[in-house]
Amino acid sequence: MKESIVKNVEKLAKVGTSEKRLISAFTIFKPTKRNWKKYLYILFLCGIPTYLISTSLETVSLFGEALDIIMDVILALFGIIFTGYAFFQALVNDELLLNMLEESNIKKKEK
């Protein structure tokens, strides 16, 4: 049990350059054979409104309305995320952190 905690803490404490960490974070968005249909679907869904807005005579007002809606959604999501983070910080203690470190090691063994 303590070995798994030590391994997970060492993994978290590995020092790497910020460039490597940034590149590894963006590899999530790289299309693979498994998820290329998802990217095609998203491109299609985003392409239709883009075409309709760009060919409209009221492009500026449509774009402004779309931005208003997007900003409202982003603010709501920010509030939800901030609230969840505050609850997490209130509930976190040493025992919970140890359980989280152990749990990540158990999940890797199951795969």
* C-alpha Rg (nearest Å): 22 Å
Strand content: under 5%
Overall, the morphology is elongated
What is the tally of beta strands?
A: 0
How many separate domains make up the residues? 1
Helix content: over 70%
State the end-to-end CA separation: 18 Å
The stretches of 5 or more residues where confidence is low (pLDDT under 50) are none
What do you see in this structure?
It contains five helices and no strands. It starts with a helix and ends with a helix. It has one domain. With about 110 residues, the protein is mostly helical.
Could you give a quick summary of the protein structure above?
With 111 residues, the chain is an all-alpha fold. It is built from 5 helices and no strands.
Keywords, please?
111 residues; 5 helices; mainly alpha
